[in-house]
Amino acid sequence: MRDHIAASLIAAACLLAAPSSGGAADAAAAAAQLKTYLPSSGSFAAEYVVLERDPNFDAYAQRFRAAQEANREWFADYRAKHAGEKEWPYDPKFGVSEADYVRYNNKPMNQFREVSRKRIRVDKQVTGPTVTLRLQAENLLLNELQIETNTPAARTSRGSLAFREVVKLDRASLPPGVHEGVSFQTPDETAIKGKFRESVLVGKLTGTSTGIIHWSLNTPGKVETAYVVYPLGN
Fold first, then answer.
1. What is the mean pLDDT of residues 200-222?
2. Which segments within 35-107 are labelled E, that is strand?
3. Could you say which of 39, 41, 150, 169 would form a disulfide bridge with 129 (CB–CB 3.0 to 4.6 Å)?
4. Are 133 and 143 a contacting pair, CB within 8 Å?
5. Distance CA 64, CA 74 (A)
């Protein structure tokens, strides 16, 4: 089946994949863009939301994979027939219902559901090119994010995150909506040695003045995901 369908089985799968290496030009452009995604206030209110994968999606993914294994030749022909198309039409040979296919494949945000939401405060400290954001609340998955705006690079309590890529989506892959930004990820050597992959995106909800930080931690058998939204402005 098409790569985007396989990738959509876990929207956070990029956490496990090797990061695409951004060149010097990409990094320079990302550094310039990154500054526009950071809050202007020194202290501000934000919304902190924890997500989890919809457990019904796991069953859907298993059925889809089983159909792929049982019908390899058909899936290869289907892939060739629809190459280049943005959306691939449903077929009963997918092994899932059309309603589930539309729900999970055409609308990837539905692969996740909200676990909790809380109002928090965030304190911002600027030291030269380094911006530190401290999230003020208890029992948070992400408590502090340090951003090097010139490099660009990022750091959490778990260690350094390397620049991965500039992200501009035409449809929402994660809640709460379509977003753009600069993503960072645990370097391969650290991820292999530590058996975890941490990922952060700093950006904004496309077409709005709302900033967003998307955070995920992928460890064997477990993916933790949260996001923070906050106001941008002068």
1. 95
2. 43-53
3. 150
4. no
5. 13
Q: Residues 47, 150: contact at Cβ < 8 Å? A: no
Mean pLDDT across the chain: 87
**Who has greater pLDDT, 17 or 214?**
214
Contact partners, residue 166, CB within 8 Å, separation at least 6: 22, 26, 29, 30, 33, 180, 181, 182, 183
Q: What distance in Å separates the CA atoms of residue 182 and residue 32, rounded to the nearest whole number?
A: 10
Q: Would you say 170 and 178 are in contact if contact means Cβ atoms under 8 Å apart? A: yes
Report yes or no: 183 and 169 within 8 Å, Cβ to Cβ.
Answer: no
Cα–Cα distance between 123 and 79 in angstroms, integer? 49
pLDDT tens sequence across 221-234: 899 999 999 999 75
Domains, the chain, ranges and CATH? 11-53+112-231 (2.40.128), 55-110 (no CATH)
